[in-house]
Amino acid sequence: MKIDLRYLLGATAVAALSLAGAASAQECPRGDLDERFCDADGDLIADIPEDESQWIDPETLIFAYTPVEDPAVYKTAWSDFIDYLSEKTGKEIVFFPVQSNAAQIEAMRSGRLHISGFNTGSNPLAVNCAGFRPFTIMAGEDGSFGYEMEIITYPGSGIESVEDIKGKQLAFTSPTSNSGFKAPSAILKADYDMLPERDFEPVFSGKHDNSILGVANQDYLAASIANSVMQRMLERDVVSEDQIVSLYKSQTFPTTGYGVVHNLKPDLQEAIEDAFFSFEWEGTSLEEEFSKNGESQFIPITYQEYWDVIRKIDAANDVSYACE
Fold this sequence. Notes:
This protein is an alpha/beta fold. The protein has 2 domains: 201 residues, Periplasmic binding protein-like II (D-Maltodextrin-Binding Protein, domain 2, 3-Layer(aba) Sandwich), CATH 3.40.190; 99 residues, 3-Layer(aba) Sandwich (D-Maltodextrin-Binding Protein, domain 2). It has 13 helices and 11 strands. The protein has a 6-stranded mixed sheet with strand order 2-1-3-10-4-11, sandwiched between helices. Strands 8-5-9 form a 3-stranded antiparallel sheet. It has a two-stranded parallel sheet with strand order 6-7. Helix 4 packs across helix 10, helix 5 packs parallel to helix 6 and helix 7 packs across helix 13.
């Protein structure tokens, strides 16, 4: 079955936007959530609408993975899971290769994205502005999960410590990225009294793989990156260990959070959750890609608990969750 993705996204957006004002018309607790959403149970994510007329039940569901690397790599990596998700939901599933965190959030906010993995730093914005309901992350066989932010350089760069970045250039990925911008900004300010523009020149590469390749090829003197992405690139021989020197490693952060848009029909949300938790990784395209950094299952999480440290980093950086 051939699908015109442009037509599909447009039609879904119109349906979603026709319901956009419904939640805003009612008085309800919402915390930092956009006025379109309610949070009566206080779990910090948008409630599923009580009014059944606000539920959506698309014939085709759009799935997107956070744009950390070449989308073509991940269309293949997710193929077996998408087939399983289609079987469990009875829906056609289309992989949507988003090019930026902002575009991904806007796609869900406007009704063009139903199931998604948002990166660590984008999760709060997706939750508060797009009605994203995260419920799982990837973990190792023992239940361990997460990644660290690392600041890296290359051998012979003349940078031997974080302090040596003063007066030089530091590559970030994008303003919505936790490890690619928000966490290093907070850490550099708090621990090293270093501010962008004043103490170093910030540049933005767009993606973690761009930053890692930029350092490996000596285009960037230093960069802040997610080491889970770097590990997968090392495993694929995209870069080699002798091209990279680590200057700093952070505490462990939660990795990409997966979930659904809040107004999907409740039994459809349940079917999607079941697909994540019942999927058998062994021998699949998902295992082939994500086992490179030790991940082998989906485990249940809550945004309220697991993203607490990320919200604190955002507060330290004066990040606003107001939707633009």
